[in-house]
Every structure is written in C-alpha cells, then in structure tokens.
Specification:
It contains six helices and eight strands, in the order ααββαααβββαβββ. The chain has 200 residues and is of the alpha/beta class. The longest helix has 19 residues. The protein is globular and about 50 Å long. 32% of the residues are buried.
C-alpha cells in the first residue's frame, strides 16, 4: 500500500511510496472504489493511520495523495517477512519501518493525553520533503525521521529549507537513533527513545 502500509505481502516492496489508490488498485487487481472502501475500513478499525499533506499558505497543494501507516509497526514488519530484531536491522525497508514507528508513537502520545493529532507531511516537486509536521495554532514544527544512529549534517537540509519557506516554523527536529542534542543552527537532534516531544 503506501508509505509503510502494505496490506498484503505482494505489495510490501512499495513500503515508502505514496498512497495512490489507482496504483494500488492496478497492482491488486480490483477497482479504485474497492481500495477506497478497504482503506476506510482499515482506518475505522485503527489498523492504519492516514497522514495528510500540509499545504496551507505554502502555495498550491503539491501532493494530493496521503501517506498511510500501520498503527502497529510490528504488523508492517511481519508483512515484510521480518521475524527478529537482527532481520529488521538489515532489512532494506528499515527506514520506512522506523518512520512508521516514530510517527505512530507521536500520534498515540497525543491521543493518550487527549490532544489533537494535527500532524501532516510536506513534499514538493523540487525535492523538498518533510516527514512529519506538527501544527499547533499558527506554529509548525517539522520533523526529519532517520533510522541512523549517526548524525549527518545533510539530515537537517530539508528542515532548513522548510524553515525558510514557512516563517512560522519552530523547533525543527531530527529524530534518529543517536543522542539528543541541540544544534547551534537551531535544529534539535532527538533520540527516538526520548519521550519529550514538546508541543511548540
């Protein structure tokens, strides 16, 4: 299916693609209407979570298709044939599974405290992509999500580009497997195991 969301083993290679209903329908061999119905049932059953694109005041809606995540990352891992942590660490879809886990952890934290899940993503034709955006009032907090335990400066590139595009950006953050630190350029680096993801 879409971004970390395969509902049958034959489609698991598309773990990080966007949710284009027609493409899914073609690969599965059913109508787009049927796929939409399946997605609605999966969402209502809390099997998947649908993340919509952010576009307000940033120009035209550049990506219309949402991203779809499994609410339980273990199910996504199972459908990718992963049966152990060692297999997960070497799997080509590790990055997508890690993103799925981080996004759903953040969504569940908000829901568990009675908060609103004002989460989005952003992707533009020029290559600018932000994995996750949290909206709080007029403020936007962008997140880059990486499975790596080693920090690389290029991890911040899209966060900086997005901050230049959206003047109401606050607390841009890279979530990865390394240590939590605050960059001198104003971008935080946070270990995914940390519970502290403050609302701006």
């Amino acid at each position: 299916m879409a971004d970390n969301t395969e509902i049958h083993p034959d489609s698991k290679s598309n773990l990080k693609s966007d949710c284009f209903v027609s493409d899914i329908a073609s690969s599965v061999g059913v109508s787009s209407t049927t796929i939409k119905s399946w997605l609605s049932v999966l969402e209502a059953s809390f099997v998947v979570y649908i993340l919509h694109p952010y576009f307000n005041n940033l120009g035209k809606r550049l990506v219309k298709a949402p991203k779809v995540y499994f609410t339980e990352t273990g199910l996504a891992a199972y459908l990718n044939g992963i049966r152990s942590p060692e297999q997960a660490a070497m799997h080509p879809n590790l990055g997508g599974l890690f993103e799925n886990m981080v996004v759903m952890d953040m969504v569940k934290r908000r829901l568990n405290v009675g908060g609103e899940c004002d989460f989005y993503f952003y992707r533009a034709p020029n290559g600018l992509e932000v994995d996750l955006i949290e909206q709080c009032g007029l403020k936007l907090r962008p997140f880059e999500i990486k499975a790596s335990s080693t920090y690389h400066p290029e991890m911040c590139r899209n966060l900086k580009r997005f901050a230049r595009l959206a003047a109401n950006t606050v607390l841009p953050t890279v979530i990865y497997s390394g240590e939590t630190e605050h960059d001198a350029a104003g971008i935080s680096r946070m270990d995914f195991r940390e519970d502290d993801t403050p609302t701006p």
